[in-house]
Amino acid sequence: MSKVDLNCDLGESFGLYKIGRDEEILDFVTSANIACGFHAGDPSTIQQTVSLALRKNVAIGAHPGLPDRVGFGRRNMDITAREAFDMVVYQIGAVQAFAHAEGGRLQHVKPHGALYNMAAGNKELAEAIAEAIYKVNPELILLGLSGSELVLAGNKLGLRTANEVFADRTYQLDGSLTPRRQEHALIKDEAQAINQVVKMVKEGKVDSVQGQPISIQADSICIHGDSEHALVFAEKIRNALTQEMISVTPLANL
Predict the structure, then answer these.
(1) pLDDT tens digits for range 160-203
(2) How many domains is the chain partitioned into structurally?
(3) CA 49 to CA 51: how far, in whole Å?
């Protein structure tokens, strides 16, 4: 039986500002990427999300991003590799501490937004992020874009890595995600998202926006928690995977 992880970016509220339906989505995913306070989140939100994830037996991951609340961490910043290293160490520490305080542990690290996309194609940034994870805890799993520099950097360092694919995003011919500012970057149709997921997991293929299929490795499927369709996607994708006889399990069990 094929196995895959289903993850979601969560804990992205801030104070009185609420984003996403975290508690409900946690009923369907197996891994939670929890915002660390830079692009979104705050100490109380981290604690609450960690506690919810533990209560629902969902594995916990740190979701470090760029310090850009206004842009939700989705705008590129001109940072050095050393700055990337320090940002990631700092943010992993925040979520790891709350996980420990709540009686749990950290399973993985997945960079967020622009930091994730920058590291996907930038070897120097990718190696700095991988090193940061390794030095905090070499047993953590690095979750990165399938086939990216980030995954390669983790493998080179000896980290356990997982290749991530997206249910609600389209792909370019080179395997990169279509930039959000471009037309057709986001998939809003449930059937299209489900079909894409099943094809990636069972066939190792995804159709690019150029119309040609590309090879892809799907260890974990991402659903964006801030998407208006997130809860519906999470439930329907989980059900579709079960119907296709695909086991949905946390990254640590793959």
Answers:
(1) 999 999 998 999 999 999 998 898 999 988 899 999 999 999 99
(2) 1
(3) 5
What distance in Å separates the CA atoms of residue 114 and residue 241, rounded to the nearest whole number? 29
- Domain assignment present for 180: no
**Given its phi and psi angles, is residue 184 left (phi above 0), alpha (psi -120 to 50 degrees) or beta?**
left
Range of the structural domain that residue 209 is part of:
3-173+185-253
Six-digit token string for 227: 């998407």
Which residues, listed in sequence order, are joined to residue 35 by a DSSP beta bridge? Answer: 63
* Whether 39 contacts 67, CB under 8 Å: yes
Inside any domain, residue 218: yes
The burial of 214, by beta-carbon neighbours within 10 Å (0-12 exposed, 13-18 middle, 19 or more buried), is given as middle
User: Global pTM?
Assistant: 0.96
Bridge-based pairing state of the strands 31-35 and 213-215: unpaired
User: Which CATH number covers residue 64?
Assistant: 3.20.20.370
Instruction: Name residues of the chain where pLDDT drops below 70.
Output: none
In a domain? residue 36: yes
Q: Which residues of 173-190 are buried (b: 16+ CB within 10 A; e: fewer)?
A: eebebbeeeeeeebbeeb
| Residue for token pair 């079909």 | 195
